[in-house]
User: Which sequence fits this backbone?
């Protein structure tokens, strides 16, 4: 894509926040900061220095972090289809059996990564390699962002969060009743002045009070309309988010059904190929038997066999 065309798609949003936490424990300050960030930007929690924990400790700590955050923080979840694509890619390049645990089946758990200056770290028990999926989830996170379409998901989620935050700030900056109360106060002062004046008749004072009441009611109705429009915008944003989630789930279901159909088709194709091989083998055996039978018919009988046959005939 040319640079001029690409610039049309640029925006000033922050599409991703990788929040690193230390291994074995999570501080209260980390949780408080994540509470302030998760409504503004897609948040992905990453456990650093995962090579300092065993596989069992890593899995246990992931669940501890998830339990602490699920009540207060909403983290970003990658599409299940994208995770399956990355798992398949890494399984194809694995030397032996490979069973990845990328953030749980639905990507709800944190990601455990490691880093080193030489892309590896030496220990007494062996060597931990940063680009090895069995040692670190850094390759999985990298491939999800750059290969499996995770960046498009992040851009959509960042846009939804930005719209929701803009609506919230617009609602917060609206003066709830101040300008209406000031107008009511000025009208009331004017009415009191009219009432206290001895030069005007009581009927004019009553008209002034009625006008003040009408103005106050008009201001209140205008304020309620503005509030209802803000609430309607928020409801529309929530409905769009639910529709997007349902569409993603439907697409995932279709992808799973398509994968199952492809697997079943491959199974049938293998069975057909096996039947064709068996048929070819049977054909070859039949042809060989026909050749042997033809050879037996055309081969002349030896003298001893002919004499034996004459004796048998004479005996009968």
Assistant:
């Amino acid at each position: 894509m040319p640079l001029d065309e690409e610039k049309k798609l640029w925006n000033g949003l922050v599409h991703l926040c990788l929040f690193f936490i230390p291994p074995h424990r999570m501080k209260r300050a980390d949780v408080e900061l994540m509470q302030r960030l998760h409504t503004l930007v897609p948040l992905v929690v990453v456990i650093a220095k995962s090579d300092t924990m065993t596989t069992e400790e890593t899995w246990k700590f992931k669940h501890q972090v998830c339990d602490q955050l699920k009540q207060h923080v909403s983290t970003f979840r990658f599409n299940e289809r994208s995770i399956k694509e990355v798992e398949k890619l890494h399984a194809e390049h694995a030397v032996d059996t490979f069973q990845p645990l990328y953030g749980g089946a639905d990507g709800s758990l944190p990601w455990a990564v490691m880093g080193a200056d030489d892309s590896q770290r030496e220990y007494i028990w062996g060597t931990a390699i940063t680009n090895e999926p069995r040692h670190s989830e850094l390759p999985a996170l990298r491939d999800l962002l750059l290969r499996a379409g995770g960046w498009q998901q992040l851009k959509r989620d960042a846009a939804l969060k930005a719209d929701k935050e803009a609506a919230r700030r617009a609602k917060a900056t609206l003066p709830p009743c101040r300008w209406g109360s000031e107008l009511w106060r000025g009208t009331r002062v004017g009415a009191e002045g009219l009432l206290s004046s001895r030069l005007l008749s009581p009927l004019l004072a009553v008209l002034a009070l009625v006008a003040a009441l009408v103005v106050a009611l008009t201001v209140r109705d205008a304020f309620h309309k503005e509030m209802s429009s803000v609430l309607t915008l928020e409801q529309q944003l929530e409905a769009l988010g639910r529709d997007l989630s349902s569409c993603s789930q439907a697409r995932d279901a279709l992808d799973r059904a398509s994968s199952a159909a492809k697997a079943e088709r491959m199974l049938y194709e293998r069975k057909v190929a096996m039947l064709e091989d068996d048929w070819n083998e049977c054909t070859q055996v039949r042809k060989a038997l026909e050749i042997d039978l033809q050879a037996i018919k055309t081969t002349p009988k030896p003298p001893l066999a002919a004499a034996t046959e004459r004796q048998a005939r004479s005996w009968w």
Observations:
- The two ends are 99 Å apart (CA to CA).
